[in-house]
Amino acid sequence: MKNKNFTATLAVDQTPKEAFTAILNVRGWWSENIAGSTDRLGEEFTYSYQEVHRCRMKLIEVIPDKKVVWHVLDNDFDFTQDKDEWKDTKVIFELSRKGHKTEIRFTHQGLVPEYECFHVCSNAWASYIHGSLRSLITTGTGRPNQREKQNC
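and the corresponding structure tokens:
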């Protein structure tokens, strides 16, 4: 049976330790609109993008230089009818050494083609992983969503 979860893989010249450190720096590659800790087992953080997307993640597995797993505790899209999309899914980063390269395998387990958000979400993840995260790992500078100004 074909795996229908969204997966993206990239290879970089940096070490697994450097890639792992970048992955944990979620504000450096995904969004500056992150509240909470993104680097310790058991910690939770929230992500928001305008009124379009909000989610709450918990770090359920953190193996230095090898693996990071987020469990999606809660999620809300303003563009889907099914408000349960993403809830109880997992976002997984697996690192391994392949020759002189570090391979990062990203999987959003549970993000499947049947989801209303699949096309938009898989394109967004691909952009963050192949663009912003790769840039953070290789140059030290990612391209996360900028911090939103708070309306007072």
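(Above: one complete record from the training split.) The first strand starts at residue 6 and ends at 12.
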